[in-house]
Sequence to fold (226 residues):
Amino acid sequence: MDTASALSRIFPSLPQTLIRRLAAVSGIQRIGKGSPLFREGERAHFVYALLDGRVSLISGPQGEETIADFMDAGDVILIPPSLLELPYMVTAKAVTELLVVMIPADDFRRMAETELSLAVAVNRILAKHWRLLLRHLTQTKFRDADSRLTQYLLDNVGTTDGPAHLVLQGTKQDLAAHLGVTPATLSRSLRRLRGVGVKTSRSEIEIENVSRLDALLQQARHSTPQ
Fold:
């Protein structure tokens, strides 16, 4: 895949003239599993458009890290530091093998400031990320561990009824960090969810009926004191 075609997948609304300008200064890079794309405190030199794979955004001191979010194929990773010329507030780490388009931050910023179509695309991406951030903050602040896990499963199984199969793209420790709980707490939550047909084997999760999980979450919401 050439760079222009890759960028067209990430920014389908951009005119081809602008795609070609971005492609002329960008390149495609493979990044190995476990490698950092950037570290907290570093200045942004590139905007990373993720073509394939999954990235975790990690915050906190060593030994007490939490995963703020995961980014998947089709996402553009942390545009704000590039636009604002500020350091990263998190570390980005490859959960799987990655294929990314690396766009120089200076070029991206200049085009975002002068090209309306790119500015609109950036606004849509940032609005989407803001909604996801608010949802994550709401879940981790106001819900117990079982409800956080249940909501995560419902968000990622891709169906609303019947059986489902989910393969974690990271470890259970990664999932615990993302949910804001300890691995031991996650294990206890998974054991409790066996009662509604959730079974786990290493990184695989089998759900007998997704609607039962949804009913459990609704019940938990209604029973939570307001």
Notes: Residues 146 and 189 are 5 Å apart (CA to CA). The longest strand covers residues 46-52. DSSP finds nine helices and eleven strands in the chain. The two ends are 52 Å apart (CA to CA).
